[in-house]
Amino acid sequence: MAIVIRKNKILHIQWYDPIRKKTFSKSTRFVDNLVNSKKASRLADKLQAELNKQADLIRGHGFRDVTINDTIVHFMKVNSNKNPKTIKDYERFFKKFKESFDLNGSCLCITKLSIEDWLLSLRNLKLSNNSIHGYGKQCNHYLNFLFEYNYISPFKINRDVKTRPEIKEKIIFREDHLKMIMNDLRSKNSNFRITLLLLFYTGLRSSDILTITVERINFSEGTISYYSPKRKKYRTVPFHPGLKEFLLARTKEIKSGYVLQYARVENLGKAITRYFKELGLNDLGYTARTFRKTFVSLCRNKFNMDESVVKELVGHEHNNTTDLYYNHISLEVMKKELMKFKYEV
Fold first, then answer.
1. pTM value?
2. Which CATH architecture has domain 175-338?
3. Could you report the per-residue pLDDT of 163-185, keeping only the tens digit for each?
4. Rounded to 5, what percent of the chain is helix, strand, coil?
């Protein structure tokens, strides 16, 4: 109920906001007397009527008046089976989101204007466009969740406010730099050496090669089986003949279990970044992912390998009906194409 209260001889209106779940007060600037008291009472009645109208509207549309934190807990529960990297992206987004939104407040505070103001504020962050767009993407996922579960009324964000990704230059290793990287591997331990060789000769994602175990390497068939966290699939691909002696040495050394001794993808990436820094290649935009880009580029441009086979080798999704639903690319076909990849370490 909106009421009139007296503070330092000035009349104030005090009310409870059901959306933000807080009590507020505002000065009328009226000096406390009989005439002004009646004016203030009329203002309080008008405000209460608006609050009642807002509450009726919420009930009429069936919106669920819960806290923002309640919706986040629900969101994380529904998406708990997502890739660990995706989960971290969600957590990073909510950490930034709570800087502007009170998690204990009602989710009905999330409106078109409040979200657009938040998205506009991201432009002031000293981050790359793609990092800012990451927040924008997760915000979109969260909003769609709120709409789906009828937490808030659906709205459309102005296209000029939306974040946009930046298309970056396709960077692959220069031939002389690649030779430098491979030649200096001889001084590294077997764990790091086999990591780079797997990345270069398979073109697989860092997260993919971390799932390879000794038990999943079939030397008689010349294949490696792995689990792709991104695609949520178990896959088997042939390995390049140039990998065989290194894989044999590594499996003989560790006997069983995971071939690579990195707890997380981030640790693998940091180790490779340090190596590039040692070689003086740290300012060229090279990362662990550059091995994948280089493998695909060499396959397609230098060795003229079949596009569909290359996609199958590196675990890319096929985007045409023929390859997606009809064309079965066998291991033998992949082995045959992989033989075109001529590169001696």
1. 0.69
2. Orthogonal Bundle (1.10)
3. 999 887 889 999 999 999 999 88
4. 55, 10, 35
